[in-house]
Amino acid sequence: MLPDLTGARWRKASASGGEGGQCVELANVGAVRDSKNPDGPRLNADISGLISAVKRDQVG
């Protein structure tokens, strides 16, 4: 079952800046979205697994 993202708090990386570059936002419920298209598709993920993969540079 997909999480309800209605009340999700989205956070953008501090390094993203405001110039429309390539950046994603992470929600407090384990979802990722494109910061330029917040109403577009979202990737649901196990938040702790996603953070671990990012720290190990194993994403992408």
TrEMBL record:
InterPro entries: DUF397. It holds the Pfam family DUF397. Residues 8-44 form the DUF397 domain. It comes from the Bacteria. Residues 1-21 are annotated as: Disordered. This is DUF397 domain-containing protein. It comes from Actinophytocola xinjiangensis. The lineage of its organism: Bacteria, Bacillati, Actinomycetota, Actinomycetes, Pseudonocardiales.
